[in-house]
Amino acid sequence: MPLFGKTRKPADKPTPQPGLQEVSSQEFSLKLTYAAKSSELVRLKAAPGAMARLIRMLDGYVQGHSELVEPLPVELSGAAPLIARLPDSAEWLTYHRTHLPVTRQALMVLELVDAIDPVFETMALGLLDGELDTAGYPEFNTIVGGVASHWDETTGDMIVRAIVGWGGKGVRGGTDRTAARLLAGLFNNIQADSQAVGVVSVERPVAAIGQGGVICPHCGFSSGHERSFYCPKCGMRMLRE
After folding, report:
1. pTM of the entire predicted model
2. Contact indicator for 169, 140 with CB cutoff of 8 Å
3. Which of 111, 122, 144, 230 is most deeply buried (CB count within 10 A of its CB)?
4. What's the CA angle centered on 11, arms 9 and 15, to 5 degrees?
5. Could you tell me which of 125, 119, 82 has the C-alpha nearest to residue 224?
6. What is the SS3 assignment for 197?
């Protein structure tokens, strides 16, 4: 069918012009789907070696290496893994450039669906299910995740939850069931920690950017909160004059 549908009398029929006939075309599309699951929160009493215990909570479920990801500096709170958001995406890539490809994949998926607070939480992440390509990057059908934690600013206890994420170009039919199984296993590992007290329900404060904050004298992390008693990064008590 011609692109221009107006009819003309035979006497008025114009000389055919190139480019007005219907064009045979190929169509392209790409559907990306991301999802995540998070468990309940578990309170753990503050104790030495807290960060190492986070890594051990992935035992039995992580494939290959796991990696610890510390909170982003408050000044990078706008950094995001979205290519359309420059320079935010450039800042995100620059800050995470030293992490493993699996870790970056996990951060990207979990941040895109708003399942984590990268400024406030410390995470232990790794590959939980699926395969890597020859360059070490996760295939489209992988499940990534681990545990996410933050320090209770009032008690100094560590609050931990299990979290898994997946998605991208295509998702297997059984991915949701596999993710649920992995989440349950990680949650059981958290509860089995020697310092675990029990399941709790707490609010995660949002960093008050531009409203002062307390600098940790131990690690130099800016809490973003004037009321912080314990450092969100290292868990040490803040010092006040």
Report:
1. 0.75
2. yes
3. 144
4. 100
5. 119
6. strand
Which residue carries 């309940």 as its tokens? 40
Task: Please tell me the distance from the alpha carbon of residue 18 to that of residue 124, in angstroms, as a whole number.
Answer: 61
One-letter amino acid at 8 equals: R
Tokens encoding 105: 């994949």
Radius of gyration of the chain (CA): 25
Domain that holds residue 160: 32-200
CA distance 102 to 144: 7
> Which amino acid does the sequence have at 137?
Y
Name the domain count of the chain: 1
Distances (CA, A) of 117 to 70, 79, 105: 11, 12, 16
Burial class (CB in 10 A: 0-12, 13-18, 19+), 101: middle
Residues in the chain: 241
Q: Is residue 240 part of a domain?
A: no
Residue 100 in domain: yes
Cα 126 to the chain's mean position, in Å? 12
- Residue 63 belongs to some domain of the structure: yes
54 phi, psi to nearest 5 deg: -60, -45
226 assigned to some structural domain:
no
| Per-residue CA distances from 159 to 6, 27, 39, 97, 147 (Å) | 70, 49, 12, 27, 10
What average pLDDT does this structure show over 27-52?
90
Model confidence pLDDT, tens digit, residues 154-187: 788 999 999 999 987 755 668 889 999 999 999 9
Torsions phi, psi of 182, nearest 5? -65, -40
